[in-house]
Amino acid sequence: MNTLLLALIRALRSHSWLRFIGCAYILSSLGNGLTQIIVFGQLLHWQASPATLTLVYMLSMLPSFIGSLWGETLCKKVSPLRILIFTEILGLLALIFPLYGLLHHNIPALLAVQCWEALFTGMSYPALTLLFKRGLHHDELPAATAMETIIFASQVLLGTGLGLLLFDQVSLLSLLVIDALSFAASVALLLMSGSVFKGIAPQPEETAPVTQRLLWRCLSPLQKRSIMLLPALAAVGSPAMALLPALAQEIRPEDSAGLALPLIFARSLGQLCGPLILNPDKLQRYSANNGLLMICLGGFIGSYFLLPLSASFTYVGLGMIFSAHMASNIVFALGTFGVLKNFTETQVAKASAMTWRGQILTATFSTGITSVIAQNFGAFTALYSISMFSLAAVGVLLWINGLRRTR
């Protein structure tokens, strides 16, 4: 059976630079996960206010909006691989902030590292997409989708998982050293990939007219759909993901941490496994199928809606969350594939940056409204109201886009 996982394995066997890139970003994701554990763990230890903890969450997303603008601009002038190396070096240097914060009990320093890491993530996203577009053959693009899925899931599965295991076992300074080593190793691997990758030269003469060609009104319905898929997923999925710890608290108030952590792990495992079972030869057909997309998003919401029924059956709840995020990340994979497939090399960096910014704004807006409703009416009321509204809105948008494509 042909799957995205097999497509990725074939591409890794064919391209040594892709092996280096994959290992580098898995290590980088590990480092980012450790950074989040260090920041959140220490803030909880210092009994930081709920407002501070909310600010940490916002700072882990919003600066990447600006970062994507910078990354999009840099891709017009600089090799994407050099941008990736530059952002990893900056990520390593940014660890000075948590070091200072830990040594001097300085909360703003811990908040600053979240801000900078989000900024660098936003800068690297369009560069990574452009690198995949340049380095892989047309029929190998599904492998890039699989690679992005693994990178996406690695932060929680590896970074957060390792951080949770070691948090009470070793000092935070030791965790910070492991964090720094992961970034340093990532930089080394990216430098090694540069020695074998042949398509890293900047192409300013081709990229100059990109902005003209990517005005929204000039895009085809298929291109608009590709850009909208990830923001649509963020609208439906972000409220549920943000509410997961609060849902665990309402389901099992006497042991919310004991339920929340396994649920978060099941979420990340589902995010990893869902896209990898897709048939790469059918991704184009899947991404154009409104029914499939709505089934995935509806299955995601339905699993969360049924979560309270699993209060007495932990493994049932874990299975529901695993299934929910298998479904949601199928949409994620189809969205990333659509951008790679439906935009040319000179357009893809800007298109991916547009997708990233839409995803960030949508997630921030929907999560903000969700938190207000949850504060006043409870987590489940917030989940039911926002998720149903978002799902209906996404359904209408997909229907309208489908009508335009058939004209």
UniProtKB/TrEMBL annotation:
The keyword Transmembrane applies. It comes from the Bacteria. Pfam families: MFS_1 (PF07690). The chain crosses the membrane at residues 20-44, 50-71, 83-103, 109-132, 144-166, 172-192, 227-247, 259-278, 290-307, 313-340, 360-377, 383-403. It is found in: Cell membrane. Keywords: Cell membrane, Membrane, Transmembrane, Transmembrane helix. SUPFAM superfamilies: MFS general substrate transporter. It is a multi-pass membrane protein. PANTHER family: INTEGRAL MEMBRANE EFFLUX PROTEIN-RELATED, MAJOR FACILITATOR SUPERFAMILY ASSOCIATED DOMAIN-CONTAINING PROTEIN. This is MFS transporter. It comes from Lelliottia aquatilis.
